[in-house]
Amino acid sequence: MSSRPWLLVIDPQRIFADPASQWCAPDFASIVGPVDALVAEHGERTIVTRWLPGDNRRGSWAAYFEKWSFADRPNEDAVFDLVDPALPWAAERGGVTLDVSTFGKFGDSLLAITGPEPHLVLSGVATDCCVISTALAAADAGATVEVVGAACAGSSAENQAAALQVMGLYSPQITVR
Fold first, then answer.
1. What is the three-state SS of 84-121?
2. Which of 2, 59, 85, 152 is in the most buried spot, having the most CB atoms within 10 Å?
């Protein structure tokens, strides 16, 4: 495991920041400052992810896209673009994002950047979906995971608190700070 952590900024996209979106994380704007500070600390070891719908409509994804049909759009749709404050975060790695069509961002594509058994610092949205999915998969694979609660936003204040509480149960593999 590398001793220098990697910052993962999960899905800072318009679809999660726009108050008109069914997927808006209401406290999204409040995490911009804390994420700015984390990016300043981690620099080029910052990875920004984007959730994209992809083309998988098999199994449970078929029902998912039936329920959330508003999100069943081409990957290039502007709703999946990064919000303006996130553009400098992605610029730390040449403007490249890690685009994944699953809730969890932990997997081979991430490990190709971080190396095996990374130390990850998680921020972003939604705490109760993509952040927790990433944290649990990473811990299962042996990564050291820190979740910065002030740099994450959930689908609601209650869901944010619940997700942070659940992740805190996985200490010492997952630390919530």
1. HHHHHHHHCCCCCCEEECCCCCCCHHHHHHHCCCCEEE
2. 152
CA 3, CA 35: separation in Å to the nearest integer? 21
pLDDT in tens, the chain (177 residues): 447 999 999 999 999 999 999 999 999 999 999 999 999 999 999 999 999 999 989 999 999 999 999 999 999 999 999 999 999 999 988 899 999 999 999 999 999 999 999 999 999 999 999 999 999 999 999 999 999 999 999 999 999 999 999 999 999 999 999
What residues contact 6, with CB distance under 8 A and at least 6 apart? Answer: 42, 45, 46, 47, 113, 114, 118, 119, 120, 121
Length in residues, the chain: 177
| E-only strand ranges, 20-153 | 46-51, 98-100, 119-125, 144-153
Cβ–Cβ contacts within 10 Å for residue 97, how many? 21
| Residue 59 backbone dihedrals phi, psi, to 5 degrees | 55, -135
Domain boundaries, the chain: 6-176
The answer to whether the beta carbons of residues 117 and 123 sit under 8 Å apart is: no
For residues 48 and 95, the answer to whether their CB atoms sit within 8 Å is no
CATH number of 6-176: 3.40.50.850
